[in-house]
Write a structure and sequence with these properties.
The protein is of the alpha/beta class. The chain contains twelve helices and 15 strands. The protein folds into two domains: 216 residues, P-loop containing nucleotide triphosphate hydrolases (Rossmann fold); 106 residues, Alpha-Beta Plaits (2-Layer Sandwich).
Length: 343
């Protein structure tokens, strides 16, 4: 399935940021970032909570003024030409407020009125959008009866009522169960594939960025630390990561033993990790060395390079939730080799 279908804007930048900055008093939320997103892309903006993702999106969508630098959407300046920007973008924010007393249909019609869409067109578009996001059967129910996943899908429909060419999704699947998350992913793919919609996706989920985005920018502390396709970013890490769990009392000894097989990488407490030179072929050598040193291994795993490894390589720490992702692969497409060993 293509991640970057050809559209009328394909190949030309429709989202641009130059030295974009935003401070809140002494706090620097966005620290001079440069971005360029082409038409027809799904662009992933990946980083932990507090990294500056949502602040950057609020600037790009005209909801917050930058304190430095500039940004343009389809050539329009987000400060000087904010009205023009709003007409061509769709926005689904993480903390969007949806009136729980209104029905899905009523909210779509209200949103359409705000965009100056005719009644005849409203009826057609609202029906199509409710069907597209799987809410036709719930169209006349109050939103207070919707599940979290249904509300997120309705929010997506609301952001699409005026048929925007550029869509901003700010952590759209946070808090959703795996089934709802995958359903929303599929809808994002369809929008991109069938309509050529450019999607700017902020997320803290490694799997989400890897699954959807053709290109990714990793942000940390308000700064971009890496940018490229998922494959390009992983290739910069190179070697797979070997992780072992041992008793805390012999952690230093274990670190010394496996440190001879590759450079140490960030790991959670009670675990040692290295970039294993030689990959799979060296696992047996590592196990023998640990045995020779009298080290009991509680758990051993070898992971192919991941976006978490890219983040760790760039920042010296792991992304929040990355450990949970390795322990539970929601789509079953595991790329890891895992062994358990005890003496």
């Amino acid at each position: 399935m293509s991640r970057n279908p050809v559209s009328d804007d394909s190949g030309s930048a429709v989202i641009e940021a130059d030295g974009l900055e935003r401070t809140f008093g002494d706090v620097v939320a966005v620290a001079g970032i440069d971005l360029s997103v082409n038409g027809g892309e799904i662009f992933g903006f990946l980083g932990p909570n507090g990294a500056g993702k949502s602040t950057a999106v609020r600037i790009l969508t005209t909801l917050l003024r930058p304190t430095g630098g500039s940004a343009r959407i389809n050539g329009f300046d987000v400060v000087g030409e904010a009205a023009e920007v709003r007409r061509i973008i769709g926005v689904a924010l993480q903390d969007a407020a949806i009136d729980p007393l209104m029905t899905g249909t009523e909210l779509l019609r209200l949103q359409a009125v705000l965009h100056g869409i005719s009644r005849v067109e409203v009826k057609r578009r609202s029906g199509e959008l409710l069907a597209r996001v799987g809410l036709t059967a719930a169209a006349d129910r109050r939103v207070s009866t919707y599940s979290g996943g249904m509300r997120r899908r309705l929010d997506l429909a609301l952001s699409l009522i005026h048929e925007p060419r550029i869509l901003f999704l700010d952590e759209p699947t946070t808090g959703l169960d795996p089934t709802s998350r995958v359903s929303l992913w599929e809808e994002v793919r369809r929008l991109n594939r069938e309509l050529g919609t450019t999607v700017f996706l902020t997320t803290q989920y490694l799997e989400e960025a890897d699954e959807l985005a053709g290109r990714i920018a990793i942000i940390d502390g308000g700064r971009l630390v890496r940018e490229g396709s998922p494959e390009e970013l992983k290739s910069t890490v190179g070697m797979p990561t070997l992780r072992i769990d041992v008793d805390p009392s012999i952690l230093s000894l274990a670190r010394g033993v496996i440190g001879t097989f590759g450079a140490e990488r960030p790991a959670r407490e009670g675990r040692v990790a290295i970039g294993l030179e030689g990959g799979d072929a060296r696992v047996a050598d590592v196990v023998r060395a640990l045995d020779d040193a009298g080290i009991t291994v509680r758990h051993l795993e070898l992971d192919a390079p991941s976006l978490d490894d890219v983040f760790a390589d760039a920042t010296g720490r792991r992304l929040e939730g990355a450990e949970d992702f390795r322990e539970g692969d929601t789509n079953g497409s595991s790329r890891r080799t895992r062994r358990r060993r005890s003496r």
